[in-house]
Amino acid sequence: MRARSPGLKLLFTLIIAAALAVPLLLVYALVYDRQGQAATAQASINSGWGGDQVIAGPLLVVPFRTVQQQTVQENGTTTTRAVEVEKLLYISPVSNAVETGIAPQERRKSIYRSVLYEAQVKGSAQFALPSDLTRFGVTRERLLWDRAELRLGISDARGLTRGGTLEAGGKSLELQPGKGPAATGGQGFFAFVPWNGEGTLAVNYSYGLRGSGSLSLVPRGGSTGWKVRSTWPSPSFGGSFLPEKRKIDSKGFTADYTVDKLALGQPPVSMSDYGTPGDAPSNQFGFRESVAYDAPSAVDVAGGGANEVVEGSSRSLSVGLIEPVNLYSKVNRSVKYGFLFVGFTFLAFLLFDIVGGAHVAAAEYLLTGAGLVLFFVLLLAFSEVIGFLPAYILASGAIIGLLTAYSAAVLGSWKRARFMGALLVGLYALLFTLLNLEDLALLIGSVLLFLALAGLMYTTRQVDWSNVGRREEQPGEDSPSAA
Length: 483
Hints:
Blueprint: H1 6-19, H2 21-47, E1 53-74, E2 77-91, E3 95-109, E4 112-127, E5 149-154, E6 164-168, E7 171-172, E8 176-177, E9 188-192, E10 201-212, E11 214-218, E12 223-230, E13 235-239, E14 245-249, E15 252-260, H3 261-264, E16 269-270, E17 273-275, E18 299-300, E19 310-313, E20 317-321, H4 327-336, H5 338-354, H6 362-386, H7 388-411, H8 414-436, H9 441-459
Parallel strand pairs: 1-11, 3-12, 17-19
Antiparallel strand pairs: 1-2, 1-5, 2-16, 2-18, 3-4, 4-10, 5-9, 6-7, 6-10, 8-9, 11-20, 12-15, 13-20, 14-15
C-alpha cells in the first residue's frame, strides 16, 4: 500500500485545522451573544435604580426685560418697531466647592451582576454679579429678581430618592422638581432665591443620589473644586480633566479636582445655557446627547415669559466604577488565540506521525480539535458562574486531562501522551500570561512563535517533504529489490 507523503500529511492537517475555524467563529459569536445578554440584565437592574449620573450646578437664572427691534408685515408694508421682550440671564458661580462620597454595592440578577452606588453630594458656592455687567448687554435695573431661580441638575432624577437641602444667604429654600441646567437634560430641581444682586450670595446644598456605572460633574464658574471618596478599588477617571491628586489602593480611592475658569472658556454670565457634556460616558438613557431647544431669540412678555436657549456643550469630570475583571473581554481575547492551540497541538501530532512513526488519522485530528474548541465554551460557561480565574483552571484542567488520555491511545505511548500533556499545560499557561500582560502580549507572543518556528525547522530538517513514491512493506510482499 502506498503511504501518504509528509507533504500530503501536512496538507490534510492544514485542511482540518482550517475547518475548525468554523466552530471557533461560532464560539466567538456566542461570547458576543452572552455579553449582550449580560448588558440587558444589567440594564434591567439599573432601570429601577439609576443610570450613569451627571450632576451640575448650582446655576443662578434671572429673567430680564430688554427692547429689541422687530420687523413685521402690515398691509403689504414692512414696519420696524421696538418690542419689549423677556430673556433669561444665566449666572455662573464665582466659586464652587463640591465633596462627594460614593458607596458602591453589587446587585445580581440570575448569574449577572451590576455595580450600583449611592452618593452623598455636598457643596458650597458663591455668586456675585460682574462689575461690568453692562458689557454683557444687561443692566441691573432690568433684572427681575422676584423670579430668580437657583438650579441644580441630575441627569437621571429617579436617583433623587433621599431628597436634598438648599440654602442661600443662610436661609433654607423650598425645593421644586425640574428645571435643571441643560447640561443634565433639564432634569434636577430648583428653588426661588431671595436676592437682589447686591454683594455676594453664599449657597450651600446637599442631596443623596443613586446611580450606576459612573458619576460626572459639570464644572462651571470662576473656580470649581471636586473631592471624591469611595471604597471601590477600581476607578476609571475620564472627562475633559483628570484629577490633580489621586490615591488608589485596596481600600478604595480618593481624587481631587480643580478647574479654573480660563480652562473652561465660558463667560461668567450668558444669555444661553450649555448643553449636555460630549465627554461624559454615554448611558442607557441617552443623556450624553446634547439637548437643543429650538427657541426663538425673543418672546413677548405677555406671551408667558422667556424660553430656554442652549448653545454648545459642557465639559465634565468623570469617575467610573469599573469591574476589576471583565470576563467577557478576557474570554473574547482568549478565543482569538484559538488557532494557536490548534496549530501547536496539530503540529505535535504531525511530528509524531512523520518523525516518530505514529499514525494519526484525520478523525483523530478532528476530535482533538473539537476538544480544544470546547475549552472556550467551558471557560465562558464557568466564568459566568464562578469567575474567570477558577473557570480557567477548571476548564483547562478538564481539557488537558481529556486530550492527554486520548493522546495515549492515538500515539500508542504514555510517554508521548505525557509530552502532549506538558505541551498543553504550557499553552494554557502562556495564554493566561498573555491575557494578563496586555502591553507585552505582542512581544511575548512573537518571540515564542519565533522559537517554535526555529524548533520546527530543526526537527524536520531531514524530512523529505516531496517523497510521494515511498512504499511500506507488507507481510508476505517481496521488496522491490528482491523483485
